[in-house]
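for the writeup, i need someone to sanity check this before i put it in the appendix. the sequnce is what the collaborator sent (i think, or maybe the updated version? ugh). structure was predicted straight from it, no edits. if anything looks off just tell me and ill rerun, i have time this weekend
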Amino acid sequence: MSKIHKIRKIALIHAMTASKLPIEKAFKTEWPEVLTFNILDDSLPTDISNINKIIDLKFLSLVEYCIKSKADAALFTCSAFESSIALCKRVYSDFPIFGPYEGALPLTKSYGKKIAILASFEPTLESLPRLFSPDYQIEKIYVKGALQALREGNISLHNQIIGQTVEKIKNVDAILLAQYSMASAKKDASELTNIPIITTPESNVSFIRKTL
């Protein structure tokens, strides 16, 4: 008799609507058997300047909802909230919680230690570099206008702006598109550079599948 594998149920927690499609697509490609459901709190990006106990309580309540919903794990796709995600991991230590970069960070090591980080949400450029060890050389690049184009529904312009930025990058080992919402730009941007481009959705799904 063949062994029956449990189909896992994973909660996907977002701060932006645009993060949903890239991670759902990654799960369908990398791990189609898994069940996922989305939780969105799009007030979080506007609260980023006031990270405090209120934000932490929001994150803790989101994880509590995941647990009550019988999820096997939770994945935060939202960037720039690493301290709140770390708190959730400490409080709910028996429940698997994944931050947005746990697959991407190990992947950068296979390319080298000169990494260009691109972000269309500027606070991400403050939080993400802290996750790298001091021996990395990080180039932080804010892709102005890309997020606004995405919010207006202009994905083509969003991808074009990112591609134009990627084309100018030189002398790094890899380029990291820091937000899940930026993943759609990888295909076109890859045609404009020989530098490897890392996206967070695919790398994180692979990491989670190996971990659970």
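The longest helix spans residues 53-68. Strands lie at 9-14, 35-40, 73-76, 97-98, 114-119, 137-142, 174-177, 197-199.
thx in advance!!
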